[in-house]
Amino acid sequence: MAAARRAGVGAAFLLLFLLVGCKARIHKLTLKNETRFFVHLNTFGFYAHGTLDVNLRSLRLPQQQVDYSVFPVGFSLSRSRVSGVLSYTAEETETCPLTLTKVTNNEPLILFLVDIHNRSVNVRVLGDQDNVLTAKLKNDVQTKVKGRLPLSPSPMQSLHGQRSSREAPANTPAKPIEPSKDGDKTSGKLPDESKAKTDGELVDQTKQDQTKEDQMAGNTLSEFQLNKTKQLMLALEKVNDTYNFNFHLLVGLLAEGLYNLNFYYCQNMEPGVDLSYSFTLEVTEKNPGGFLSAAEIPLPRLYIGMAGVFFAAAMVWVYTLMKHRYSVFKIHWLMAALAFTKSTSLVFHSINYHFINTEGHPIEGWAVMYYITHLLKGALLFITLALIGTGWAFVKYILSDKEKKIFMIVIPLQVLANVAYIIIESTEEGSSEYPLWKEILFLVDLICCGAILFPVVWSIRHLQEASSTDGKAAMNLEKLKLFRHYYVMIVCYIYFTRIIAILLKVTMPFQWQWFYEFLVEVSTLIFFVLTGYKFRPASNNPYLQLPQHEEDEEMDEIVTESGALEGISKVKKTSNGRERQKEATL
Length: 586
Prior knowledge:
The chain has about 575 residues and is an alpha+beta fold.
């Protein structure tokens, strides 16, 4: 078991360094030969004046002739009232969302329909919203759009940091030449004859500049208030056999919320159709305060605060162990190590989120430290729960074969669960591996939580049998009562953190979904405190009391008066009416 455990931990550490990097808010996703008709790219909570930059590059679609009016290809940006946990339900819809022409709840919805035949991206704006879109218009609609689509007068910067502008009319008069300030030169005379230009030459230069701008009209960025504009036609650039386009979105006050960015290839919804496509997508999401989503902004402060609370609880526990050092067992120090590891993990988690907020991505060294402490914390938690559940050191000092099998199952599963968590954190949501590893993490976590209950159930059954056979019913019944309390504690902790907290998360407003993490950390703290209280090293703890009656029949008695005598047993045997006592140590 120890060898398998070391091998599992070593493999996990190897994966830690192979998967350096964490889920950032500056995303880059590359899909090659993808066949899914629906790809969930990202979920992000925007406050007012938050920004979304999307840059699609190297879009390569199948060569087959496709009617894009019937089977559209493109992106949807929709506001959702629930968490991204439920965003995958869109995959089961029978109608392609890109074909929608109206919405029933007036929620903001923007559709970007890619048409490679016309080399354009048709934008359809649905619902009530006050967002501002900045993008390149298609060449042949520049003059038409100019007269009827309202441009935003706001000074929002374009994707390249330049303010969007429109070309000047061709008949703009040349700027008059200012009189020279030099007294010896006549008024209106050019100061430098070699660089002078007449009014006619300036007009010709203006016409030439105008012609160049007309030719590059597709590179002109324009702003549009989406509450006034319902349809747009953006430029789709062709580079060899691939297509590119980008846009910038400024979220308005009325439209702030939780947004899902999805990609659809509706042709693959048809039975038996499995066409492949490829593209590279760069997405940058930002709120006024940084790169964190609205629900994640409080998390750095939350984690560092809870780290301080866990550290204080660990210090109190160590003080208790030092105060009752003659009643301390090894498992008590294991519980202290778990509390300190949990505190350290929260510190690195807070630092990780801080750099994501300021830089848009984590710092590799801090991310690796967080993953290591997170893995150790998970392993120590389930090992400690299993040891306490079996009654190790409190009721017996050895583990049975079936209890050892629990450790051989739970520890590798915990390593797998932590590896799945690390892969999820370092993988973009749109990748094909992301849903698979998310399901693995959920399933393995449930298996571990269920397996950890078996040792407690076995201990309860053992104490029930012992209370009626060994003559120490009172003491065993007291231990049985406490084990039942501990079983209820574990069930409540698992049920709350895995079910209730998630249900609360998906029903809360988007900016309050961080409360889920708060509830999980507080419930973990309460569980740790109650466990420490019930298993505290004290003389009046029923777990540590000596038997009050002597046994005449053959039995094994475990000495539990002091942690210093941990592992010492006293064997009594009766033979030919005479009693012999032997003491043996492990």
